[in-house]
């Protein structure tokens, strides 16, 4: 009995959290036009989140590309089809690895920073102080950070993907001797515009999810040191899980 | 609507009830805060002094009763009306609550930049005037982290008055200050109130400092106002609870010990068995 009750309670708590996050997202969407009018704040946040994650995303993208090149080359050579390496790597990066890995890295780097920043502002009464100055912290603090993350994400995904392809090129063409013309032309013929669109769509959805989780966790954190710490951890865990689930759902829906 | 109510009481609470969980914070609280005066709200820790401020500023809603500030009936205000009212109020938070990634100057300029379209030159002029009033014009380019606690609070005070409010609210302004900063803050509260024609509400339990600054005092306990009047009169009041608080006596109606079972039973674990 106790176990069933506990499972039920966990489920209810989960649904409640999901609901309040949806309401939070709704408020952000309602405020969004007003937020975009104060574009300077948003640009600042794009710069902030973007530059936070850029280095780690470029480095990771490069190594993911190298590994894809090696594994892809090894696998394709068994079928004597190492010529399609360029197309295979590009498809994998554009449709899956680019958006997913970028979102995970974003959560670890920029998401945690956002959550702890907002949580700490709450814990030190800065958000209350804004309310008392008749400034809505949802509009002044949360919204620009959310929009900044949403806008930055597709660009980060594009950079990750491009550098990944470059890494695979280094392995395949520069090291293993795949013909460069074939490498690129295979890529061109294999990757359709629909694949690119799928990647862009995913990067936008993941951008919304990762930014939403980060600002939501920060804004609803308990205003204590422990609460802020927990909010940052939850940001990474919830983003990772929800991105992977969303990825499956989108892939299944589009196939 | 404005706060420019006629002479008399600027803030009025009538029959306010507020409970948090099962704990009754206020049970029929009545209070009237006169315009143009410095009013002190005192009470032992945990009597809901900060809750009272949050009721006045509309951050919390009472379960019953009315909270009137100027012409605003606070609990029934829409969000935009609430913000309109708050624009005419300044509040000093216990720890200052400065925005940590803005400089002192930008902190004080923040409300101006958010609410007005004044040119930079004018903003600079206003901000430096307010910083000068709290003696920190020289610290304009520093960041909150580089200032002491007392200086942080003075910057927050400059920020609280930058929009020329009608009401200024202080939440525990004397806590954790050294005697010099304490004296500075005490003098500032008095001077700002008289020079700017403000109505000040000071929530605190520092009886001695309040004596220097308060025109009128309320003493809260057990969810009600138990005494009110000029600060001097309260010092001389005879009721046991007022005496205990005003003179800091350990014995009296407010027990030093949190309710507990018998000391001996607790130590030797008699009666209830192991916990």
General description of the model:
The complex is a heterodimer of chains A (255) and B (275). Chain A has one domain. The radius of gyration of chain A is 21 Å and the shape is elongated. In chain A, α5 (137-175) crosses α7. Chain A has 255 residues and is mostly helical. The longest helix of chain A is centred in the first third of the chain and has 40 residues, at 39-78. Chain A starts with a helix and ends with a helix. Chain A is built from eight helices and no strands. The mean pLDDT of chain A is 93. Chain B contains ten helices and ten strands. The model of chain B has no long low-confidence stretch (mean pLDDT 86). In chain B, the strands form two sheets. In chain B, strands 6-7-8-3-9-10 form a six-stranded mixed β-sheet, sandwiched between helices. Chain B has helices at residues 49-56, 79-86, 104-115, 120-133, 149-160, 179-196, 207-213, 231-236, 240-246, 263-268, and strands at 9-20, 23-34, 38-42, 64-69, 72-73, 89-92, 167-171, 199-203, 216-221, 224-229. Chain B is of the alpha/beta class and 275 residues long. The relative contact order of chain B is 0.16. Chain B is globular. The N and C termini of chain B lie far apart (58 Å). In chain B, β4 and β5 (72-73) form a beta hairpin. Classes of the chains: A mainly alpha (255), B alpha/beta (275). Chain A binds chain B through residues 121, 124-126, 128-129, 131-136, 140, and chain B through 57, 59, 79, 83-84, 86-87, 89-91, 93-95, 97-100, 110-111, 114-115, 156, 159, 163.
Overview in brief:
By secondary structure, chain A is mostly helical.
Q: Layout of helices and strands, plus pairs?
A:
The complex is a heterodimer of chains A (255) and B (275).
Chain A: H1 2-37, H2 39-78, H3 85-123, H4 126-132, H5 137-175, H6 180-190, H7 193-219, H8 225-254
Chain B: E1 9-20, E2 23-34, E3 38-42, H1 49-56, E4 64-69, E5 72-73, H2 79-86, E6 89-92, H3 104-115, H4 120-133, H5 149-160, E7 167-171, H6 179-196, E8 199-203, H7 207-213, E9 216-221, E10 224-229, H8 231-236, H9 240-246, H10 263-268
Parallel strand pairs in B: 3-8, 3-9, 6-7, 7-8
Antiparallel strand pairs in B: 1-2, 1-4, 4-5, 9-10
